[in-house]
Structures are given as structure tokens and as C-alpha cells.
Amino acid sequence: MNHSFKTVFVSLFVFTAILSINAPVSIAQQIYSKAYGHRGDPAIIYLHGGPRGNSTLFEGTTATALASRGFYVIVYDRRGEGRSIDAEAKITFDEAFSDLNTLIKQYDLSKVSLLGHSFGGIVSTLYVNAFPEKVERLILVGALFSQQESYDHILSSSLSAATQKEDTAMLKKISYIKSLDKQSEQYRKQTYEVASHFGFFKMPKPTEESKKLNQEYDSSSFSKSNIRNDKAPVLFYQNESRVNIDTKAILKSIKNKNIKLSAIYGLQDGIFSKKQLSEMQNITGPANFYAIENCSHYPFVDQQAKFLQSVQQIMNK
């Protein structure tokens, strides 16, 4: 075997091996996915936030722990986001639905439970509405469901905080954001920048458990593969018409399609108002709404033990 051919062969072998470790993965579609746990256990598919997100935080901190409780946990990065690099990706809901259908088929699953986090909550809600026959449960985790209400709450809360701190730069920025088209990518982007500035995504009082999880993630290979496609939000707003929506009516209708609906939210998740959390509780029913104290936008890291317990209770119902 000459040096040139050997180099090509080894490169192809390594590339194929990387894809095969987490089989089944479609090479043609370039969708990253990995399964944790035993095939045959109840299947849970995790849908990450975005657009521009990935599943590395959940995978690196929680997938194995959840699988150890008797579930077949599948994580993946949506096309054009994270590790599913695809220069031709459109970043639309329909594209996401098609890839999720392919993923379910590749893993030979009949019915699944979806764990939709943040923007992944909207993706999973719309998917269940379109393909109810493929889903047994929808579990929303810090999931968006009335986007404009969240944006309004973020800007209102930020305005109060900026006024109190006499933060003229943020006051100016908030005023500018309010002048933008609410259907634009910049409106969304800058609203979340303000939310991040005021710590709306962070738990109020980090515990030793959450500190350890974050430290382990930061030093892991998952953190090193925390790929972000800055073009994804731009493409989403360019190619998708449903960019600022309210899914409450859809969530209510899902319950009439024999889909088991539950929700897990941090009580200190700064992107949701108390009114919104109350509305979500009314939609799911009190018995299916899990509110976690000292917890913000990432319940599976902020309060992992309570998160795992909540998911297990939901899945056992």
C-alpha cells in the first residue's frame, strides 16, 4: 500500500469510525447523534435550544445519568447546528421534522418521548402537532411557548434593572431594541443579549452539585465540541415564516391527541414571567407541571437530581 493511498484509507477509516461509534448515523445527512442506555428501554430524544445551539451540555452532563435510570436516551444536533455541519441547511421547522423522522427510523423506534429544551420546545411541539402518531410523551424543559411574551418580559425586567442601576448603556440598548421589527433576527438576538447581561439564564445560588457539573463539562471533550453556527439564526429568519409564535393553543390540542404532556421549569428562569409559568401549569395540569426552586434555564445542570427525579416520575406515569 503506497503512502498516498494509505493516508486516504486511514483518513476514511477514522472518519467512518467516528460516525459508526454512535450508529446509526446518516453520512449523507451529516446529522450528529448518539444513543445512551439499552435499546428496548423507553426511548427519549433530547431536542436542544437554538437556532444556533447543540446538545453538548445535556449530553456531557445528563444523558448518561438519565439513561442509567432505565431509558434509551438519544441526543442529536439539528442540521446546520452544532456538530451537524451542513452548509446547505435551511434551518427551518420542516427540515427539522424531516431529520427527526429519519432519526426515529434509523434507530428503529416506533414511539418516542421528546424532551424539548428552550427553542427545542417549540420544535418538539410543532413536530408532535404534525406527527402525533410517532410520539407518546412531550416533556417541555424551560421551553419557549409564547415567544413575544418572553421578549416583552425580558425587556420589561431589564428596563427595571437598568433603571435601578442607572445603566445608561443598557437603557439605550433596550430603547433601540424596542424600535426594531419584532419579526427580525436582530430583535431576538439583542433581546437575549440583554437577558444574558442581567443573568437571566443563571441560577441564583449555585450549589456544589451544579458547580461540579459545570466544571466537569468545561474540562470535557463535549465543551471542546461546543460548535455554534452564527449563521443559523440568520438562515432561520430568512427561510422560516414561523419565527415569533405562540404555541399555547397547539399544546392544548396535543392533549386531545392522546399525547402525554408535561413540563419542567426553573422558578428563577428569567425569560419567563410568573404569569407564563402559571399558564403553562394550567395547560399541563398541576400534576404534570414540575417547578424547581433555585433553578433557571438549565434544570438538568442547575438542579440535576430534581430534574432526573422529575423525568422519571413523568415517564413512569
What does this structure look like?
With about 325 residues, the chain is α/β, with parallel strands linked by helices. It has two domains: about 1-30; about 30-145 and about 205-315, Alpha/Beta hydrolase fold, catalytic domain (Rossmann fold). About 50% of the residues lie in helices and about 10% in strands. A seven-stranded mixed beta sheet has the order 1-3-2-4-5-6-7, sandwiched between helices. α12 (about 275-285) links the parallel β6 and β7. α5 runs antiparallel to α6 (about 170-180), α5 packs across α7 (about 185-195) and α6 runs antiparallel to α7 (about 185-195). Residues about 1-30 have low confidence and may be disordered. Keywords: Hydrolase, Signal. Belongs to the peptidase S33 family. It comes from Dyadobacter chenwenxiniae.
Gross geometry: globular
Give me the number of helical elements: 14
Helix content: 40-55%
Number of domains: 2
Number of strands: 7
Strands of the widest sheet, in order across it, are: 1-3-2-4-5-6-7
Which spans of ≥5 residues are poorly predicted at pLDDT below 50? Answer: 1-29
Give the CATH architecture of the largest domain: 3-Layer(aba) Sandwich
Mean pLDDT: 92
* Estimated radius of gyration: 20 Å
The first-level CATH class of the largest domain is given as Alpha Beta
List the helices and strands in order.
HEEHEHEHEHHHHHHHEHEHH
Fold-level CATH name of the largest domain: Rossmann fold
Strand portion, in percent?
Answer: 5-15%
Structural class: alpha/beta
- The CATH fourth-level homologous superfamily of the largest domain: Alpha/Beta hydrolase fold, catalytic domain
How far apart the termini lie comes to 59 Å
- Main sheet overview: 7 strands, mixed
